[in-house]
Design brief:
The protein is an alpha/beta fold. The protein has ten helices and 15 strands. The protein is elongated.
């Protein structure tokens, strides 16, 4: 039989083109397909570029809400009156808080930076602020937690980012109106947005001047949707290396998808992105009887974002005494073991998912090495990397180093195209069902040549008759 050309119906071709731009390119007698460049997002070109070098971070939600141990929004969700909630301040005495131990866990997990709540919605401040007495200095503990953590991070060279809630359930000037994440109007308050904004600016100035180098500012809950670029400009002037998220008073430097934000229908982001997720299913703060995500769920989430040139914050909520709960640290240790196995496929790599139309996997690359991330539920023990039709020199599983079988073969389901594609076969999907597998493909050629225009299939299905 004659060698057959790649054939698509008009409808099939259009769908394939939408899924993968490389399929829309016509074949030429010689040379390779013109593959889309799997380039990285544009960098900032200044000190903020640390953000692209340290992709995996630890998020910490900690405050008075750890004492009842139910939720970081205990006051709002539990309908607790302010006069009752503020009494928790007299019980704040986290004698087991040791920032070095937190950073030990961070490093063991493979994380490279930290972000901590300096003030959550309840208004309680973890630093020595001069603008409200609702802070850690006016408690039995009486120590500046942000100062202690900043000193420890600077000693180890770990970037520190600061979370700050714009919504405030304690400040009398904040205009609580009963919107989402707000209290109902409080009779004892004197709501005045511009007086409150002055308070915010004063506190931000403290945080950006009293604790050495800060690497990020993480705003949350701008419920009034007020815009004022001068506030972020002030942060940039005081802390030029700090990246700023998009939940504040302008669009900031990066986007912040949260929890199980499903963005797998596209394979890249149009701006810097930092996803965030907690190990606990119900609360970001400490919860005494918390329900936890599976290791596999968290690994998949981490892998899906890092493989697309994004960052990832994984959150734990310390207990009221300052210790990290055993369940949370055990999860982080297991995540860390997996991350250590596969990190070469996630750090200093290019997103490369356009190289395949297979949306059950994601790809990253470095030089002539291609990494196949099985971060969705593998439906079987084989993965077909259509339209790749060149065999690598070697295929191995990063998780444990074993070799992976592969073939460039024509499958019955490829009958429409009449082409053979690279298949990874006999994958240990049942044996490693509780992790995310990453397969390393080592080539001896540039990756823009691994899709050849002429099909290897010569009409022989391999069926002897």
């Amino acid at each position: 039989m004659k060698r057959r050309n790649f054939v698509q119906t008009a409808a099939g071709f259009s769908l394939a083109a939408m899924l993968n731009p490389l399929l829309a390119h016509s074949e030429t007698p010689t040379g390779s397909y013109q593959l889309p460049a799997p380039g990285k997002l544009k960098r900032f070109g200044d000190g903020r570029d640390w953000f692209f070098e340290k992709r995996f971070g630890m998020f910490i939600h900690w405050g008075l809400y750890a004492i009842p141990g139910w939720h970081e929004q205990h006051q709002w969700r539990g309908r607790i009156e302010r006069d009752e909630y503020v009494k928790l301040k007299d019980l704040w005495n986290p004698v087991k808080f040791n920032p070095e131990q937190w950073l030990d866990v961070l490093e063991e997990t493979g994380m490279k930076y930290m972000c901590i709540t300096t003030k959550h919605h309840d208004g309680f401040c973890l630093w020595d602020t001069k603008h409200t007495d609702f802070n850690t200095m006016n408690t039995p503990y009486g120590k500046d937690i942000i100062g202690m953590l900043a000193a420890a991070c600077q000693k180890r060279g770990i970037p520190l980012c600061l979370y700050y809630s714009i919504a405030d359930w304690n400040n009398p000037y904040y205009p609580n109106q009963g919107r989402a994440h707000e209290l109902p109007p409080q009779p004892q308050d004197s709501p005045d947005w511009y007086k409150y904004l002055s308070f915010v600016k004063n506190q931000v100035t403290e945080l950006c001047t009293n604790y050495g180098k800060i690497h990020g500012f993480w705003w949350d809950i701008n419920r009034p949707a007020y815009k004022d670029p001068s506030i972020n400009q002030m942060i940039r002037k005081l802390q030029p290396d700090a990246v700023i998220n998009n939940r504040g008073f302008d669009d900031g430097d990066f986007g912040t998808p949260e929890r199980d934000y499903q963005s797998d229908d596209f394979i890249s982001f149009d701006r810097p992105t930092e996803a965030c997720q907690s190990v606990g299913m119900e609360s970001w703060g400490y919860r005494k009887d918390e329900d936890f995500y599976t290791d596999r769920h968290l690994m998949r989430s981490i892998d899906r974002f890092l493989a697309r040139d994004a960052n990832y914050l994984l959150n734990v909520g310390p207990a009221a005494d300052g210790s990290l709960p055993a369940e949370s640290t055990d999860i982080l240790k297991r995540i860390g073991k997996w991350y250590a196995e596969v990190k070469e496929s996630l750090e200093d790599v290019n997103p490369a998912s356009p190289l395949t139309s297979n949306r059950n996997v994601m790809l990253t690359s470095r030089g002539t090495t291609l990494y196949v991330h099985l971060n969705s539920e593998p439906p079987g023990n084989a993965v077909r990397l259509r339209p790749v039709n060149t065999a690598p020199l070697k295929a191995s599983l990063l998780n444990d180093g074993r070799e992976v079988e592969f073939k460039v073969r024509f499958n019955p389901s490829d009958h429409r195209e009449q082409r053979a594609y690279l298949n990874l076969i006999n994958l240990p999907v049942n044996e490693l069902c509780n992790t995310v597998m990453v397969v390393k493909l080592e080539y001896d050629r540039p990756l823009d040549t691994i899709v050849q225009p002429d099909s290897p299939f010569d009409g022989d299905s391999g069926w002897d008759y």
